[in-house]
C-alpha cells in the first residue's frame, strides 16, 4: 500500500512538474489526446518526447550511458522520438519525479527496488538489501528470472513501468569525515542515504544513524558536519566532489547497485507497440554500453580520489565478514517491510546463489 506521504505528494506533484516542464518547453501540446487514466498521449504526427531527470552529473558513467540512449532512440526512431536529459536534479528529486509519473507525465528517472517498495511492491525492496549479492553475475541472472518479472508486473499495476533494468550503477562504498576501518567504527555516525526505508534500515543495522537526504544537499551537509558520511558508487562520490569534505573511503561494497529506468505506465501504454519496443530495446542496449563505461571508470575514479588526498581502506575478508554478519539482522525484518514468507531464500535461488 502506498505510504501517506506518497499520496499527498501525488496530489501536488503533477501541478508542480507541469509548470516546470512548460517553462522548459517539455509539456504536451494542447491538442494531444488523453487516455482514460489522464495521461497525455501523443498524436500521430507529434514527436514523442521522454524527459529523463536524474541526480547525477552528465559526466558520470550513468550520464554517458544516457547520452548513448538518446542517440539510439533518435537513430532507431528516424527522428520521431527523442530523449531529453536533465542532470543534477533539474526536474526535481527522484520521489517528485516518480509521483509525477503516477499522474501520467512523460518523465523518467533511475530508481531501485527500495523506492518501489515504498510505492506498493514490498518484495522489490530486497534487491537493495545490504550484502545480498556476491557478484554482478547474480544481479543479471536475477533480472531475467520469473521472480523479477512478477515484481515488474506488480509495479506496473501500481502505475510504474520499467524500461530497462540492466544498468550497473556501481558497487556502493562509504565515504566519511572520520576514518572507518571496521564496521564498529560506524557506530553512531550519521550517514546520508537516499530517502527510503530499505536503505535507511540497511545502514542502521550496521550501527550507523542513517539520514535520508537528496543527493544535491550532501556536499553542504558534510561540509557543515550535519552528517558524518555518505555512501554511493565511486563515480557519484567523485562526481559530486564529496571527497573534498569527507576524505576517508572504505571500499565495503555494501550494495551491488544495479539500477532501473522507470516511467509512467499510462504514458508508456499511450505509445504504439513500435515506439514501446524502440524505447525498451535501446534502453537495454545503452545499459550494456553504460556497464562497460562503469567498469572501466572505477579504477580511474579511485586513483583520482587517492591523488586528491583521500585515505582509502581496502578491507580484508575478515573485516568484510564483520559487515556481513551485522547485516544479517536486516533479513529478520521481513514482517516490517511486508515481505513474502521466505523471500530471502526465494531471491537467492532466483539469482543462482549456492
3D structure, described in words:
The chain is built from 14 helices and eleven strands. The chain is globular. Helix 7 links the parallel strand 7 (190-193) and strand 8. Helices cover 43% and strands 20% of the residues. The strands form two sheets. Strands 3, 4, 5, 6, 7, 8, 9, 10 and 11 form a nine-stranded mixed beta sheet that branches. The chain has a two-stranded antiparallel sheet with strand order 1-2. By secondary structure, it is of the alpha/beta class. The longest helix is centred in the last third of the chain and has 35 residues, at 273-307.
Biggest sheet layout: 9 strands, mixed
- Mean of all residue-level pLDDT scores: 89
Poorly predicted spans: 1-39
Number of helices: 14
Would you report the number of β strands?
A: 11
Radius of gyration: 20 Å
Q: From N to C, what is the helix and strand string?
A: HEEEHEHEHHHEEHEHEHEHHEHHH
Measured as a percent range, the helix fraction is: 40-55%
Give the CA-CA distance, first to last residue.
Answer: 33 Å
Which short descriptors sum up this protein?
single chain; 354 residues; alpha/beta; nine-stranded mixed sheet; two-stranded antiparallel sheet; 43% helix; 20% strand
Brief synopsis:
43% of the residues lie in helices and 20% in strands. It contains 14 helices and eleven strands.
